[in-house]
Amino acid sequence: MTDDRGSQRLVELLTGNSETFVDQWVTVVGESLTGRLSTAEVERELRDLYTAIRAGLATGELSVHADGFAEVRSLLVELSRNRARQGFSPTETAISVFALKQVLEPSLTGSAEDVRAYLQLSRVLDELGLLTVEAYARTREEIISAQADQLLELSTPVVKLWDGVVAVPLVGTLDSARTQVVMERLLQALIDYNSTQAIIDITGVPAVDTQVAQHLLKTVVAARMMGADCVISGIRPQIAQTIVALGIEFGDIPTKSTLADALRHALGTIERDKKLAENRGSLL
């Protein structure tokens, strides 16, 4: 949308007392942020934004999606992302745009031309405010997603219990996404520690249903393809009853009630394989 007369009046309005407007804008926004950002930082952001808005209006465009507002959009996205990372609310972020209305309103003369110009500027600032909130929301979603991934990794540690033995102590629900992480971390640990025995401990898993059992079996199969034997530990009485009632079969996968029993089994398997290798060597 183009309105040369309206845009020209807006540029005149923003240019006439630019320093005063910027100072007042900084004050209003700074107060809304309750001192959690330095005045110098707020002034730098808003001064750059003020200059970009004035330059965008000077092109005669009143649509924030026009090419003339490209720098404004870029500055607002950066501002919104920073506010989201710094923990500010959407309202505190959007006020950085909307406060400019409050600053400019007293400068109006009351003429029809000024009122029209102010209404046009309000529409522009409303669009910029929406853009700010959208950028803020996208950043918050990215932050939450990244935090979820980090928590997922922290909740699936792989530890070395003994030479040749690694364990994955699972806590909480085992779903498809977490199963993938467990597989990746377990397979990498088998390589890193040169392990032939893996223990999957489900003591911290509240319940085992058919889906959870399938996820466990997938993990065991993946480990076996890497040449490692698996033991599932933490089979409590309630879980054992559920497994039987659901008709879930773990086949030839060893299961133990405690992690200690699983470690004893793994060490026994390593010792047995070692003796078999020695006997084969002596026969040769």
> How far is the first residue's CA from the last residue's CA?
89 Å
Proportion of residues in helical segments: 55-70%
Report the β-strand fraction as a percent range.
Answer: 5-15%
Supply the helix-strand structural class: alpha/beta
Task: Note the overall shape.
Answer: rod-shaped
| Main sheet overview | 5 strands, mixed
Helix count equals: 10
Nearest-integer average pLDDT:
87
Provide the gyration radius in Å. 32 Å
The string of secondary-structure elements, in order, is HHHHHHEEHEHEHEH
Give the strand tally: 5
Poorly predicted regions are none
Pfam families: RsbRD_N, STAS
Keywords: Phosphoprotein
Organism: Streptomyces andamanensis
Domain STAS: 155-266
What does this structure look like?
- The chain is α/β, with parallel strands linked by helices.
- It has helices spanning 4-16, 18-32, 39-58, 70-85, 90-104, 112-154, 176-192, 210-225, 237-246, 259-283, and strands at 159-162, 165-171, 197-204, 229-233, 255-256.
- The protein has a 5-stranded mixed β-sheet, with helices on both faces.
- Strand 4 (229-233), helix 9 (237-246) and strand 5 (255-256) form a beta-alpha-beta unit.
- Helix 2 (18-32) packs across helix 3 (39-58).
- The chain is rod-shaped, with a radius of gyration of 32 Å.
